[in-house]
Design brief:
Blueprint: E1 7-10, E2 29-33, E3 40-42, E4 47-57, E5 62-67, H1 70-76, E6 78-80, E7 85-87, E8 94-101, E9 107-109, E10 114-122
Antiparallel strand pairs: 1-4, 2-10, 3-9, 4-8, 5-7, 5-10, 6-8
The structure holds deoxyuridine-5'-triphosphate (DUT) and magnesium ion.
The site of deoxyuridine-5'-triphosphate has 10 residues, from strand 7 and strand 8.
């Protein structure tokens, strides 16, 4: 499968940091670095918006998803507060990572730490068509556990 080309611009405060890359042959995500000038500590329950020092241009028909790294989430409780974050193809601002500390201890984040991962995925834009009635289905209005445990 051909790879969509994503342009990446390193911002001034991202200079010197490693560009995100796929760390294994079939990795789905590229880790995003924290482009902090100095370390920060996220208190339990605290939310921080972490710069990556990167702006990207994703081709039309794709999106970026900012997802947690499982190691950080499971070991420390540090996860993406709006997971999965959405990077629109037409967004040219800095990619930022919203993190929340769900763990019991403060978590320190240092410059260069890989705090989340970026997935490039195809998207479709639908056409909404207003209708007075919807076509019947077997499920109907059943949901929220209607099929049992
Ligand atoms: O984790 C994220 C989520 C979003 N963004 C950037 C890229 C995205 O294209 C833009 C808008 O995101 P979203 O649509 O989720 O936020 P919004 O609150 O709806 O803002 P807007 O009104 O600007 O769309 O913010 C990030 O850098 N990181
Ligand atoms: Mg939006």
């Amino acid at each position: 499968m051909s790879r969509p080309r994503v342009l990446v611009q390193r911002l001034a405060h991202g200079q010197g940091l490693k560009l995100p890359s796929y760390e294994s042959a079939q990795a789905a995500g590229m880790d995003l670095p924290a482009a902090l000038s100095e370390s920060i500590t996220v208190q339990p329950g605290g939310i921080v918006l972490v710069p990556t020092g990167l702006s990207i241009a994703i081709p039309a028909g794709y999106e970026g998803q900012v997802r947690p790294r499982s190691g950080l989430a499971i070991k420390k409780g540090l996860t993406v507060v709006n997971a999965p974050g959405t990077i629109d193809a037409d967004y040219r601002g800095e990619v930022k990572v919203g993190l929340v500390n769900l763990g019991p201890e403060p978590v320190e984040i240092c410059r260069g730490d890989r705090v989340a991962q970026l997935i490039i995925a195809p998207v479709v834009q639908a056409e909404l068509m207003e209708a007075a009635e919807l076509p019947a289905s077997d499920r109907g209005q059943g949901g929220f556990g209607s099929t049992g445990k």
